[in-house]
Each structure stands twice: as C-alpha cells, then as structure tokens.
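User: I'm writing a short report section on ligand binding and want a predicted complex to refer to. Could you take this sequence and 2-phosphoglycolic acid and write out the structure as tokens? A short remark afterwards would be nice.
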Amino acid sequence: MKKWIIGNWKMNGSLNANLPLLRALAENANDACCAGVTVPYPYLMQAQAFLNNSKALWGAQDVSRFDGNGAYTGEVSAAMLADTGCRIVLVGHSERRRYFGEDNTALAQKISHVRAAGLTPIVCVGETLAERQSGTHQAVIEAQLNVFKNMEAPEVVIAYEPVWAIGTGEVADEDQITAMHSFIYAKLLSILPKAANITILYGGSVNSDNAATILKLEHVDGALVGGASLNADSFAKLIRMGSEA
Ligand code: PGA
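Assistant: Sure. The structure tokens for the complex follow:
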C-alpha cells in the first residue's frame, strides 16, 4: 500500500512564502506515494494552480458543519472546497477540538458533508498528555472514533496525533505508535465492519530524521506533518522517504 505524506501548514503561509513549498510538492509527488498538503482557505486556488497537473493532493484544514449554501457568515462548505478541485480535508484536528470546541456531533456532520462532496476526510484523533499519563488514552481515542458509529464509510483515513507530540519535538515512541495504531485499526473494524480500506497516519513532530523509522511500523500508512512541511527541502525529503517506504 502506498504511504501518505500530508503536510499541514496550519495558519502559516503567504502567496510568496508558499511558492517554494508548492514547487517542491509538485516536483516530488509521484505515483509511489500519496503526497499532499492542506493549506489555509485563501491559498487553495494557488495550490490548485501549482498542483493541478501534478501527482500531488491538496486540500483544506477544516470545513463547515453546515451543508449547502446559506446564512452562515464566515463558513466554507464542502461543496465549495470540491469546487476548487481539492481532494482532501482535515477534520477534527486537535487544535480545532481545543480552540473551537469541536465535538463528535459537529465532526460527524463535517465528515458526512465532505464525503458527499466526493472528497476524502482525514479525521484526526489524539489524546492529551494528562490522558496518556492517567492511562485513559485508549478510551479517549475510542470515544473519538465513535464519530463513525452508524456511518457508511467503506474508506476511512485517520491521523493519530497525540496532542503532546504535536509541535513539541517529542515524538511518540515506537511501542506507543504501534499499540495505538493497532488499537485504532481493530476499533474501526468493529465500528465499521464493511470498511474495506483503512488508512492510519501518524502525526506529531514527524521530520526527515525520524520518518523512516515511523513509516516502517505496523499499521502506519503515512504521516501528517506540521512544522517539517513548512520547509521545502525537508518536505521533499519526506515525500521521497514515503515513496521508498
Ligand atoms: P507537527 O504538527 O508535525 O508540527 O508536530 C503535526 C500536526 O499538528 O498535524
């Protein structure tokens, strides 16, 4: 199975600063890997212009919980995202859960609108340090995965991102990653018995020094990369590692 290497720019970028990053992605994306980037909304069309004829995926970091058009000032619908030609959308990143109080009710709506628009949601899950230390991490992830209950989702892409590993330089260790990815895989199969295609990415301080080891672990189908996706050389390196893994 091809590895996924997805950059998450978060609230970073400018028309100028994006140029080398998009160029590196367009030049390095290839058939051996699913490489892509999620960008702030104003840069979706810039990503389209650069990546449309490349092998790269691009997409948004969030989407409205509301469907269709309407009086929802400031919101961007899944159909609007699809209109830009984008293919992927992050849903439920821990920063959205934390700063915007996103819960499973809102996330289920987002996932379903994204899927209805023909796009692939990358659903993020992860526990905080306190939850890990108190031993409730599996229960926390299970509750987050319950967003898929009663959903018809033959294809699921998850990003497991321990909150304590995001942007901290403290990557989860191999045993922690393997144990949680196997747990997620098994849970998804019990929630979605018809899920034929389950992809589980790891995220949290992934860089070109640690990616080769992480990408080899069982049930690790790729990486969601924040900080290291903001440097053209290191992101290009990660795509090459993903293509060879
Ligand atoms: P990081 O961010 O790679 O900077 O830790 C990952 C993410 O939040 O998606």
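A remark for your report: The chain has ten helices and eight strands. The beta strands are 3-8, 33-39, 57-60, 88-91, 120-125, 155-160, 197-203, 222-225.
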